[in-house]
Write a structure and sequence with these properties.
The chain has about 375 residues and is α/β, with parallel strands linked by helices. The chain contains 15 helices and 16 strands. Strands 3-4-2-1-7-8-9-10 form an 8-stranded mixed beta sheet, sandwiched between helices. It holds the Pfam family Glycos_transf_1.
Length: about 375
Amino acid sequence: MRVAIVTESFLPQVNGVTNTVRHVVDRLIQTGHQPLVVAPGPGLSDYRGAPVVRVRSMGLPGYKSFSLGLPDPAVERALAEFRPDVVHLASPILLGAVGLRAARRLDLPTVAVYQTDIAGFARQYGLHAEAAVARWVGRVHRRSTRTLAPSRSSRAQLAEMGVHDVHLWRRGVSLDLFGPDRRLPELHSRWATRQDKVVVGYVGRLAAEKQVRRLTEVAKVPGVRLVLVGDGPERPWLERHLPDAKFTGMLRGDDLARAFASLDVFVHPGEAETFCQTVQEAQASGVPVVAPASGGPLDLVDPGRTGLLYDPSDPRSLGRAVTSLVADPALRGRLATAALAEVQGRTWAGVVDQLVTQHYGAVALGRAGTPLAA
């Protein structure tokens, strides 16, 4: 099968959209399919033998390192020349809308993957455009042949936008990379600074949409050593307000896996996650999780069994949840063990194979398929 992936983000940018596209392309190549990637901004023109078509872009205001794709006739030319069986729209917003229009002109079926709560993103950046953005995103998905959502919460978001025939497609986790065996006692000891300290960490972009300023609540918990893995525009503010925290910068590959596994507790403060991949990665690393009772984590955390959920509307809830884990090593162990068992079957190979057989195949053959059950 020939698959054209029009994505809002790709390497060298590293984020959830990029990582998902990368895993999809890896598996498509491994199983004998032919992918093409269309992406914004400068970067590589070939990924593992798959051509990458680069189109015009601009930096996101307030976050210049994030490239926004712009209307570009190169998108339609690339699709016309490649002649795909299906067009995969990865988190379609701007470039994805261009890809959708081109695909409709060329009479090509589309699979639109909802991955970013862009309306919530706009709210966090104070853009006062949440309603308009939601209408735009809803229109893109309604005009696509099929829409996939990563969680039941994101399905509900799409329903509010008028998108109702939505199918569930979750994310895989790299079980060959993340695991408890990656824990480095010497790294943990270096971070903890004292034997009685519990290392609590956040992994991800240091950006407003992740609500990382709430990590100041975690830093107030007695006995905590806070570690932040990642980078982004909020880092200067966090460094000023968290002088005792450890900032590692962005880590990848084995370094990232070792950092995850060397934590005692993982915290994610953002409540606008459609899935929250880092929760899965922490669980696969054998680390207990604290996440908001909102968005994607609702599907990933069984409260009291595979992690803890806190109430994001309660300014003390996050601190209480972290305190309960800091004070109870046995609880940390039980949550970590149950969560690790839960993620063992969630391989990227299985997830991408499902995408190909159940979703690409259905739209390419013109079959309606079965919508997401309640």
